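Today's session is about reading a structure prediction critically. Students often jump straight to the picture, but the first step is always the sequence itself: look for stretches that repeat, for charged clusters, for runs of hydrophobic residues. Only then move on to the predicted structure, which in these notes is written as discrete structure tokens rather than atom positions. Here is the chain we will use throughout the hour.
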Amino acid sequence: MLDEVEGIVQGHRDGHGFVTRDDGESDIYLPPNEMRAVLHKDRVKVRIVRSDRKGRPEGRVTEIIERAKQPIIGRLLQESGIWIVVPEDKRYGQDVLIPRAATGLAKSGQIVVVELTEPPALYGQPVGRIKEVLGEIDDAGMEIEIAVRKYSVPHEFSDACIALARTLPDHVRPQDKLHRVDLTDVALVTIDGEDARDFDDAVYCEPVKIGKGKSAAKGWRLLVAIADVSNYVETGSAIDIDAYERATSVYFPRRVIPMLPEKLSNGLCSLNPEVERLCMVCDMLVTEDGEVTAYQFYPAVMWSHARFTYNEVAAILSNTRGPEATRRKERIPDLLNLYGVYQALLKARARRGAVDFETVETQIVCDENGRIEKIIPRTRNDAHKVIEEAMLAANVCSADFIAQGKHPGLFRVHEGPTPEKKEILGNYLKAIGLGMSISDDPSPGEFQAIANATKDRPDAQQIHSMLLRSMQQAIYTPVNNGHFGLAFDAYTHFTSPIRRYPDLLVHRVIKAILAKTRYQLPTLPTPGEAHAKLSRRLEKGLASRVAEPGVKPKKLSTEMLAWQAAGMHCSASERRADEASRDVEAWLKCKYMREHLGEEYSGMVSSVTGFGIFVTLDAMYVEGLVHITELGGEYYRFDEARQELRGERTGMRYAIGTRVQVQVSRVDLDGRRIDFRLIHENDALVSRAKKDKGLTSDGPARADFNRDTGKPPGKRSARKISEPLATAPSSAGRSRKPDSASGAAGKKKSRKPRR
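Below is the predicted structure for this chain, in token form.
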């Protein structure tokens, strides 16, 4: 009898699904017939029954261990007298039947929240009742209301949390200043985005001599002051419990779901200008070469002497006699000192070989009704980089302080590429004939060297994209394995405790080390179902990471297991916030592009798959899919090594960076999908490709195959090869079954970059 494994069902909009195993091994495929009795996020036990031709396991559900408790969000419809809710999340592959008595006050077409009363069965649909009516599909902010429920984002503070927040003072009291360094006369300033409301870091820099006598060298004293949230949020309190559950603030266009109540996040903890605030300070000495030779941490009370924006500081640094500089004349020397220490820290970054790819990030600009007015690139100027380097230095010092204090805590770990990703990247670099590759044990400098060497190539974007994809995601864990991308031996998050729970934990650990005590994690409520699968992997998956290769893993102590669980919860919450934010952005972009159906735009291929190419429009920074059937009458094969689609007859190639002209052909708001039609092919590329293939006929050759079936056309061919796919915009209110194809369209409010 084959072994049975447990895991969480991950549905797919096309009807099949996968089981994400608790032991971290490869996902198990579930065919559509196995998905009839289960739903997305159910916990099941499966038996592997076969492997497909690529060796991937396929399973059969033997037991449903636990039904997902998460409610389903969808649109209420009436079809032939029967009330159903069509799930907004297409990973739920079945409509939910709603008895007439269970519809409540909801009306047809409205977005509702459904609580299941009967689970699905092999021959029966799930049944539920309307728990909450969110409103009409086009109501302002509806996309956010859907996202927070779809991804189980905690968005309402508990009554106990709100009550406790009300008891906190509105200002710093005399007793709060005891045993703190008075920095109110130091010209600390905040530098943030124009739309920032919570200010959790302030900076100050002055030139100093490092060393004594003739050996003294020029250097800098850099102060990074961070809001002392831990002074007001006590371990295990009602505010702490809510903060842990959220673990991070979630940023949407026009709205933020904060980790802390507004009285703390925008008031008492925020380093607002010209008011006293409590802070934790990382006080550093930095040499001209960017080396931090000494640092210390201490609690302090500060007074922010100015609230700067990134654009304002960048303008002052570029022109110290301009209008912005004239208004801030007394602060110019301090800003120049900050720029000086930034240049020093930049030298150290270059020596480390830290990865620093320039990427284009976008900002959605909405009107008062939440409708997109425009999508613009978010430029990263020198002011952003000044603050980023200062925060990196403070984070490195905090990691070193915790390691030297031999106290458990959460590190921000970013490991190098896996063997599989190294192989894919190596094959790709070889396939394009670059002449450069990565070693078996690559360093960040190797990646940066390739990026620098290829930055002026026409395919630079494709190469840099592949470099980025080869890297792993950063996580929070008490096991310090360094930060590969930043090339740090130890790194943690200290600088944003208002919006990140790991930073709050780091503050508490630093205070415990300073007080020569030991910080104990509180007994907090078990995370929701979205994080339960991560907690179950603690013993099996993470214990092995602590041990040396070939050595039997040690059993983790209760304390380390608690820190592992906290790290995994914070990592999962970070992913949850990112997914919810991307979902809202995709919704808004789809609504925006519905107004541009039929219009033509130039763009660049941003991703290549076996089923088509994703194109990002130049003018709008919106991504959509050109399905492989829309690439013309040619049979294309996906070259995984080169990451490109290549025509068999013409040799026409589509790779990341290829320029194309497209037409907006279809927008699926429910599926968050935008479809483009290729309106003409790049003549130069076609001619060159045909010449390489020895073809001389005018115009691109047409392959003899049916684009629906992929087979040669016969007497029953559905349409001519040259005939475009029939497309139509989705109707927001029409009745339909949830059978549309998958896809996604795709910034947070201005905030410090997450590393």
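Discussion point for the tutorial: The radius of gyration is 28 Å.
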